[in-house]
Amino acid sequence: MSRLILDEPGKEILLMGNEAIARGALEAGVRVAAAYPGNPSSEIIGNLAQVAKEMGIYVEWSVNEKVAAEVAAAAAVSNMNALVAMKQNGLNVACDFLLNLNLTGIRGGLVVIVADDPSGISSSNEQDSRSFAKLADIPLLEPSTFQEAKEMVREGFELSRRTGNFVMIRSVTRISHARGNVILGPLPKDFPVPYFDTSKPLCPIPTSITHVALHRRFKEAEEILKDSEFNEYWGPEKPELLVITCGSGWLFSKEAIDILGLCSRVAVLKVGTTWPLPKSFLIKHLQKTRRVLFFEEIDPVLENNVAELYAQHNRELPLIEFMGKNSGIVPGTGELSPELILNALGKVTGEAVEFDENQAGQAKDIIEGYAPQRSMAFCAGCPHRASLWAIKQALSLDGRNGVLFGDIGCYALGILPTGFSQLKTVHAMGSGAGMACGFGNFHQFGVNQPSLAVCGDSTFFHAVIPVLVNAVHQRSRFLLVVLDNSATAMTGFQPHPGSPVDAMGQNTSPIVIEDLCKSLGLPTVVMDPFDLDGTIETVCEMIREQTGPKALILRQECALVSGKKQGKKYQVRIDPQRCIGEECGCDRLCTRVFKCPGLTWDRSEKKSRIESVICNGCGVCADICPSHAIVKESA
Amino acid sequence: MEKDPYNVVVAGVGGQGNVLGTQLLGAVLVDQGYKVTIGETYGASQRGGSVMSHMRVSMTDQYGPLIPPRCADLVIALEPSEAVRVLAQYGNPNTVTVVNTRTIFPVDVTSGNLAYPEKDALMAKIIALSKKAFFLEATEKALELGNPILANIIMIGAVSGAGILSITEVELAKAIRENISSDKVDVNLKAFAIGKEMTNCD
Ligand code: SF4
Ligand code: SF4
Fold this sequence. Notes:
The complex is a heterodimer.
Chain A: E1 12-16, H1 17-27, E2 32-35, H2 43-50, H3 52-55, E3 58-61, H4 65-76, E4 81-87, H5 88-104, E5 109-116, H6 131-136, E6 140-141, H7 146-163, E7 167-172, H8 173-176, E8 179-183, H9 207-225, E9 232-234, E10 241-245, H10 249-259, E11 266-270, H11 279-286, E12 291-295, H12 301-312, E13 321-323, H13 338-349, H14 357-370, H15 383-398, E14 403-406, E15 425-426, H16 431-439, E16 451-456, H17 457-474, E17 478-484, H18 513-519, E18 524-527, H19 532-544, E19 550-555, H20 559-566, E20 570-574, H21 589-594, E21 599-602, E22 607-610, H22 620-624, E23 630-634
Parallel strand pairs in A: 2-3, 2-4, 4-5, 5-7, 6-7, 10-11, 10-12, 12-13, 14-15, 14-16, 16-17, 17-19, 18-19
Antiparallel strand pairs in A: 1-8, 9-11, 20-23, 21-22
Chain B: E1 6-13, H1 18-31, E2 35-41, E3 50-58, E4 74-77, H2 80-90, E5 96-100, H3 107-110, H4 119-128, E6 132-136, H5 138-145, H6 151-161, H7 169-179, H8 185-200
Bound molecules: iron/sulfur cluster (2 copies).
């Protein structure tokens, strides 16, 4: 049995932040949960899907975040509790719907989890999603610990039901993807009966009524949250410096104050209910200090909101020096770290910090000398390496300087040398196809560069289908290359509409990408990218004469999936007689250019070598070696 | 624990399984009554990057998921150059290091852009940056068991064998059952025993 559904209230277990969020939802009686995978939020729905059967809940991996929000909302307007989870980019996709839903309100409970990724550790962008709560006039909670992640979801549902609107919870990588102790609470046995009241339609028009109602619901939330225990104060009553923080800044700040011996001088105020602000709580403590330092992740959201509050209440408050992102003491972007907080506190209080810039410099020197950097690269045996290699050869044979537009997924690495620098753009889901569709129609300006786009199979369903419809209608001359690795590899192999099973493990009929393309009238070809020569020829052929959009599906399983399922396809070895190393006219094509991590350069022997622990046995390198020194034998 | 909080870094390269290893270690320690926090760096690191897990162990408090600079008490490195990367930032004169000696070259090295340090110099650097360092051929032993990923459990065994953290077979088996699956218990316990043996005779 999954630890997530242990019915042992009071038991303390180690949970990942995302598991704690899932558990909180279960304790609140969630019935429906949906998401499109995106780190650092993916494990929330992944974990709920695993317990769906046992808990009698409905969980789906939706085709994109907007649909996920709509599915969850359907439950939440029918008296049920529903959860939708997304990463910051996903919020942008769901935004259009959510900014209408806030006006109609709901008739159950809906919690929207947005997991931001400060510093873009596993994201294309960095974005502070908290501004959305202000835009939408909805309450926003921010957990600082794993226990709180669970409790906030539970209470978020209660707040949502009481105020008739959805509640947003903002997590970050250092909560969602970290682990800590969580004390379990009881799991409910009774659930509200699902029912859609058809006598009360939901419509945001006219806004002269619904927007006013939204503000009223927001005021109610403010009233309920004003004494929330999620807002905490730690330290001396009249501190010379007050740290105001939220999220991951809470635990980091307390430890840093302790390390610097500042416990009698500096206090920390943690805001858990970031929007609406706990006004009286903040004012009470602002009255007792003259200096305030803010620590929060990404934008100065809390900082600006507190400054606004200060301006509104300046008659009750002393002169206060505010420090943080706006004053430049804290970096304006990126995530918080113990080091950053120690250094900022040291600067503001005059306390010496042990790990100063000098020592950081020494550490850097040691790393440079003894720990060579590890650039990101496709896994050994990754089909994307073969696909991008083939596209590179085809574009150079074609000779018209074709442009490969791209987007997000493992294949975004194609923008780096390890992906042969083939991708020329990376933005949002499906945006490579959209841009290629545009660029493919600029021949009237004399543009003759072929227009190509790559997208993954999951991305194809998420955002590319409308592009194809557009391309057919506009007769855009572009080639869509679908890198179909039969997985949402980047986020942990969740099923998508092309998979034969759904999130809950039930069989479903997979949507076949080539059938869909053909049904739109696109000339469509399916190839195995491990057949390098065939793929190169096909790409050349397809872009030679174009009068409208075409689709090429390069199908080969993600190496992590195929490796797990059937082990190595080939035993690969280097024939030392044939490997002529640096003498080779190719200048070590295999290790220097092709760069599969399964191939290494043996410096003493001056030959290539297969690193058998890493090689996944795809056999592709055997086809690129000009002296046929790489030998593949069926395993 | 000799110190509170006791700080552990488990470092390696994407795919070596250090995230899971740390999770098992953490689950055992929570069962022993500790407050444990684990911070992980992964995501894109699946694809050949450095992966580091930070674990904070305390009798009284829940600590943040990242260890402050120079505050690591124990470094478990599944790859030797990763040991140096961690020690340079988080090590101090009291840090104990347990290292798997099997090297994994970054693509930057296999492609000839950067050089990987000579083995002897690398080991000497690890010793110089640690109070005490244990070197283990964990990957080789794991391959004898049939799967290189077991190196991470061998390392945990070594930590236990050296008396650094007290972890019993029973506790580990429970954590494996609850966090991975029951049919993985046997082979992991074998790996654990091998690791224990390796530092016992030190
Ligand atoms: S066969 Fe060659 S290209 Fe394929 S994984 Fe092994 S080393 Fe890499
Ligand atoms: S996870 Fe799969 S798709 Fe992603 S780089 Fe590795 S092999 Fe390629």
